[in-house]
Write the structure tokens for this entry.
Amino acid sequence: MEKNLVIVESPAKAKTIEKFLGKGFKVVSSYGHIRDLEPKAFGVDVENNYKPTYVIPPEKKKLVTELQAEAHKAATIWLASDEDREGEAISWHLAEVLELDPQKTKRIVFHEITRNAILQAIDNPRGIDLNLVDAQQARRVLDRVVGFELSPILWKKIKPALSAGRVQSVAVRLIVEREREIGAFVSESYFRVTGDFLLPDGKTILKAELNQRFQTEAEAKAFLESCRKVSFCIEDIATKPLRKSPAPPFTTSTLQQEAARKLGYSVSQTMMIAQKLYEAGFITYMRTDSVNLSSLALSTAKAAIIDIYGEKYHKFRTYTTKSKGAQEAHEAIRPTYIEQESVSASAQENKLYSLIRKRTLASQMADAELERTTITIDISGKAEKFVAVGEVVVFDGFLQVYYESVDDEAEKEQSELLPPVNVDDKLSMQILTATERFAQRPPRYTEASLVRRLEELGIGRPSTYAPTIHTIQNREYVVKVNLEGSQRKFVAMTLSNGKLSVREKAETFGADKNKLTPTDIGAVVTDFLTEHFPGILDYNFTANVEKEFDHIAEGNLEWTDAIDRFYKVFHPIVEHASSSKSTHRVGERKLGDDPETGLPVFVKIGRFGPVVQLGMANSEDKAAAKPQFASLMKGQSIETISLEEALKLFELPRTIGEFEGKTLKAAIGRFGPYVVHNGVYVSIPKDLSPLSISIEEAIELIEDKRRQNAERFIKGFDEDPKLQVLKGRFGPYVAYDGKNYKLPKSISDPAALTYADAKAIVDSAGDAPKTARTKFSKRK
DNA sequence: CAGTGAGCGAGCTTCCGCTTGACTT
């Protein structure tokens, strides 16, 4: 029987700490919060000073019972949740729910998981900080009030099952606004001039760029022409030392960004892989906003660096977090044993581990020392100069290990070595080129760059970045797109051997891969919310309420007063936005009138997404013609669709012709464009359109589908035609009545299954979950 | 609240942050 019970948040942490504390201590985990506002109701009693209704989620009931039993047996309970607002609340909920005796309960915190830090924490217990707990309650209640009052307005006004919240709505707004900036962007062109110059040795070429850009083709041309009879010579050689410092160790957000840039992982992929590494004990906790390294980490990093690279590569550095609202309950993300170069794990995990290790090492390494040389070339009789810049690494320092990637690749060119030259060297111009360039439009967000922006704004926390990104895609507010880009022409002029030639060339621009763009629903919801709730959608809303939470944490403000002040302003706006009864639907736009019928054509968000509508509903006259509806196609938007494009959509469903005596139709459904023949539906691939698909193409699709079904079929049973053995993406399986069932591993030849075998697989699948549940029920 | 290719139709949908399962697909 242990005398001491320590409760931490994470089971992996519990395991480590138990080793340090040894006999007399049992360490268990709360698995995060054990209690929360009731999920299916408002959960806050506005009439009763905002009293929250907390409940234990069903999946936590068993855990709570176990914790209760352990607490009952222990002489002292040590609440060791994280040292931040949420952690303090977790301890408070534990104390309340487990009905802990204050005499026997102690609150401790530590910043690093080392024996010393933990023993020191045990020596310095305190009580639960109720002000901090109240700050958390304010945060929790505010988020509930905002989320649960805004979302229903969207159901009513726009579309069911939508959602809004302090974090997600701002995330969507960022993407909507960026897309509009891109739409409004006018790319102005300019001309940049470069030249190749032959050095006096007669063989070496020096490349340089003119220190001035020209706005127009005429100016650029005039400049080139004026260079026919000038001479060029080296005017100046300047060398400047340059230092580069390493980036700080990883936080959740910077890890997500670098893993996306260097390894191509999505935000959630990175987190899942990191979780595995953490559970295996290879890295420290992966949800953190701190760049701090423990003293132990600093000394082992130092030893490793000196061992591998030598003394002069090491530099002791401490980093401070500058992102808004950081709570620093954990260390930065680092390897637990930095000397370990790789880990026994999957290739993906190893790549991420290696990234973390290199970043950690580099953060404790010396600056890189470079030399930047600038060669200036004089043009006789002219004020403009040609300039060549080169960089040489004198001492690589941390660059030996790691350099941080940047998002836009445009900025990294030039860094090559320059040839040796002397002042006054005469140069022979080989060729001058004036190329038309275009100003870059603002970039679309990637998952990772959106996380970076949210972090800069102090919106969201390390534990919520990945789920937020998931939510806004799940609600279909934003989608990840790959855009082909389009062609544009540009002018390139050259002057060579006294001959000026002007050519027009073409390039692709605007191509994008895996970038976030708003859907019509995202845009309409954002417009609606920013119109009625500019305060909540404000990029500084979170930062402002965080200040309030700080006052509460300091004991200078009652949390219920803070919420009351907010609610008194917020709720009337909710009432107003919800009741404003205009017949005009949110996001609706009239495109014009149908020339054939004279009926008006509208676009708006319908029950199932964006639609075009022909004609108006008439509730008075039941006999009047009902309006016609048609969904927009992929790639079309209610913001940009034209009347002509809209009218075309009403041609669907469209009869293509006859095949085997039955009609062939094309239309767009819930899962996209399709053709249907004799009750068989087949999706239309991207390169064909339901508006134009020919009868031959449609028949081919139907026949392909038949072939596929034939290949999929392994066997059927006379006893019951609904029961089939099929071959799918994950191998053979049993299909029955629209549901699929996995084959047991023991079956090697699915074709040999009898009716009884297959039926048994279907029947036994039903009670599998039940047996799994009883497996863990505690006896005795 | 006007439709879909998935039948009827009543009832539900939703927030943010803290943590891992135990499951398919």
In short: Confidence is low (pLDDT under 50) at residues 767-780 of chain A.
